[in-house]
C-alpha cells in the first residue's frame, strides 16, 4: 500500500504536537517497517524545514530530514504535476499539487489531519486514526 503523507502529519511528529504526535508516529512506524510505502513530496521538505527549524534549531531539523529520507520515498514534483494540479478545484494549490503527485504514483490514500482541504482530490484522504484502524 502506498500513502502520501501530508506535511502536517510530519510536523506533528517531529514537533511533538500533542495530541497528534502519537498517531503521526504510528503512521511513520508503519512506513519504517515496510508494511506501508510512505510518500512525501520534495517540496514538503522545505515547508518542514521552515517550520521545524524554528522549534528545534537547524542541526536537529537537518537530522530529522535525513531520517525522513531513510523512511519515506521523497517524490519529485515536475512540470506536468504543476500544470495538472491547476485543474483540481481545491482550495489550496499546495494541496492540489500533493494530490496530483499522489494520483501519479497511484497512492491509495493521502494521510492528513485536514481532509477538508482535499475536497475534490482524485485520491481519497484518511485521518491518521482512521487510517491506522485497518492495521489493528
Q: What this model shows, in words?
A:
The protein has helices spanning 7-14, 21-33, 42-56, 58-71, 79-85, 93-104, 128-133, and strands at 2-5, 37-41, 73-75, 109-111, 125-126. It has 136 residues and is α/β, with parallel strands linked by helices. It has a single domain, classed as 3-Layer(aba) Sandwich (Rossmann fold). Helix 1 (7-14) packs parallel to helix 3 (42-56), helix 3 runs antiparallel to helix 4 (58-71) and helix 5 (79-85) crosses helix 6 (93-104). Strands 3-2-1-4-5 form a 5-stranded parallel beta sheet, with helices on both faces. It is globular and about 35 Å long.
Q: Helix tally?
A: 7
How many β-strand runs? 5
Count of domains: 1
CATH topology: Rossmann fold
End-to-end separation: 16 Å
Write down the secondary-structure element order: EHHEHHEHHEEH
The oligomeric status of these chains comes to: single chain
> Can you give the mean pLDDT?
96
Strand content bin: 5-15%
Low-pLDDT runs of 5+ residues are none
